[in-house]
Amino acid sequence: MSMNSLPELDRDHLIHPVTSFRGHEAAGVRVLRSANGARITDTEGHELVDGFAGLWCVNTGYGQESIVEAATEQLRRLPYATGYFGLGSEPAIRLAASLAERTPGDLDHIYFTLGGSDAVDSALRFIRYFQQARGMPGKDQVISIEKGYHGSSTVGAGLTGLPAFHEGFGVPLDWQHKIPSPYPYRNPVGEDPQAIIDASTRALSDKIAELGAERVAAFFVEPIQGSGGVIVPPKGWLKAMAETCRAHDVLFVADEVITAFGRTGPLFASADEDVIPDLMTVAKGLTSGYVPMGAVFMREHVYATIADGAGSHTVGHGHTYSAHPVSAAVGLEVLRLYEDGLLENGRRMGTRLLDGLQGLAAHPLVGEVRGKGMLAAIELVTDKAARTPLPAAAEPGQRLFDRAWEEGVLLRAFPSGVLGFAPPLCCTEAEIDRIVEITARVLDRTL
Ligand code: PLP
């Protein structure tokens, strides 16, 4: 056992995701020790409300005993089963069937991954295979949206519209293309919903025409852009984008890694927008972050084309831990909890959260309050009329995060000066109110 303290061991050995390595060495780590419901406690005994559900994933909240029991029982009975060799496990099969029953339309075929990045990567591989199988190997270009986030795998990071995920990594960008974000608060066409929808569908049609529809395989989109700063497009936008894709024979892929499983209200945000994507990617809330798991859902026509195209040949895509039985057992219990009152509570608390944050709209630093369900953001500005963003050079993200932490809430502070909120769906009214009160104090301290 090393005599060094946890912060020293962390500094010397643990590489943190999406972090300035040198900045982290200087700042040091905060070590979390335990959590229950929507509360987390660090090793100093500091208790906070988790206003971000970990990393927008612990939708059920922490300490749900029935999830612990489901995982423990599965660990005892069968901790691992491969999906290779035609084998499977009961929880994986039941989870696939339960999800298929609940997804929109015939989005009924499910490949399980370990998280969101490999779900996106798997989707990309299946899409390329699909286009080959239907005799269109040249239909291999993909389009996504600026400020979108689709993970940080070697290929999928190309879809991510945040430059830090490309620069220096050699991400293949030659066949991955972007159109502007709908971003109502900062859209050159203004905030009128129809004008935004028209501008986005035009941008997508124009990009498809520029590349040639016979070369465009798919369009990837988050129903609400999460890591780009919780950007909420107008109602009807997602459907209009899906219809534009259909009109040009381009697969429509909804990346619901954040938005699914009650985060925006229903189980799937696409269903709420009356959209049946050709493929859909999920992770996070699928297992509520208790164990890793993601998934790709495919519509019948996508699955059948791949299956028929391959015939008796192997479709060479797979992971050792695909459909892991412990993750699947957790997924089944998490799904039961969502439908046993958590979605309902999340919807009520989401309204309370957004109403509470709207109450801060008059604050001189608040440019916009936006959100849907238990997903919300405040965009901070230095000049409300001119919508001037906080100066990036001052690194407002870390400062705001630190202040909120000291006051007792974990929230996301994006470098652009956007505060992100995604509390667990189990939050009580008092916890939601505390998030709002502390946010008000953080704003006052930032003036
Ligand atoms: N897609 C979206 C929309 C996400 O928000 C994320 C992660 O935040 C991912 C993909 C990547 O998921 P993971 O971090 O589990 O690899």
Automatic annotation (TrEMBL):
Family: Belongs to the class-III pyridoxal-phosphate-dependent aminotransferase family.
Name used for this protein in its record: Aspartate aminotransferase family protein
Cofactor(s) required, per the database record: pyridoxal 5'-phosphate
Naturally occurring in which organism (per UniProt): Rhodovibrio salinarum
Superkingdom in the source lineage: Bacteria
Matching SUPFAM superfamilies: PLP-dependent transferases
Lineage: Bacteria, Pseudomonadati, Pseudomonadota, Alphaproteobacteria, Rhodospirillales
Keywords, sorted A to Z: Aminotransferase, Pyridoxal phosphate, Transferase
GO molecular function: pyridoxal phosphate binding; transaminase activity
